[in-house]
Amino acid sequence: MAQTYNIEFKEEACKRVQSGVPAAHVARELGVNVNTLYTWMSRFKEHPAEPFVGSGNLHQEDSISALILSERTAPSVSVSATSYSYARKS
Predict the structure, then answer these.
(1) 3-state secondary structure the chain
(2) 64: pLDDT strictly greater than 60
(3) Which pTM was predicted?
């Protein structure tokens, strides 16, 4: 099973890298894969107020974008006059 880390742990790791400590060094010290740390860093930079919303959750602007995208790509349903007339006869 994958290791989970709390928000404070992730934020502290990101702050250490921002303070100038090399990401590889921080990752090695904490026992975290360096690519995982880079993922945390990108989320921390993108959403500094709330970088880690939790598993399966989206930031508010991301959920709005997903909703707009789903509305654009949803298949349109059209009912033709012929299918309506057949349905009424049955």
Answers:
(1) CCCCCCHHHHHHHHHHHHCCCCHHHHHHHHCCCHHHHHHHHHHHHHCCCCCCCCCCCCCHHHHHHHHHHHHHHCCCCCCCHHHHHHHHHC
(2) no
(3) 0.54
